[in-house]
Amino acid sequence: MDSRQAIATLKSNTERPDKSAALKATYRDAALLRTLNDRLAEANSPDAVWHDAEDVFAELEAKYAR
């Protein structure tokens, strides 16, 4: 690697990221966090209905059996 390549590599590693991309990622992460919090609130609700995993998989296998 010559000095020009080293400088180009160093420069590309230290450039600031695009602010719009960072902002989009922040909004995407916030939306995901809201979704997860909503789902946790639903699961922790006293009205939540829980299903046994074996029953759910048995229904799916019966539904999609060919």
What is the residue-averaged pLDDT? 85
Secondary-structure class: mainly alpha
Q: Helix segment count?
A: 3
Order of helices and strands: HHH
Low-confidence stretches: none
Strand residues, percent:
under 5%
Q: Helical content, roughly?
A: over 70%
Q: What is the approximate shape?
A: elongated
Radius of gyration: 24 Å
Major pleated sheet: none
Q: Report the strand count.
A: 0
What is the terminal separation in angstroms? 60 Å
Describe this structure in words.
The protein has 66 residues and is mainly α. 76% of the residues lie in helices and 0% in strands. The chain has 3 helices and no strands.
List the helices and strands and how they pair.
Layout: H1 3-14, H2 19-44, H3 53-64
Features:
0% strand, mainly alpha
Q: In a few lines, what is going on in this structure?
A:
The chain contains 3 helices and no strands.
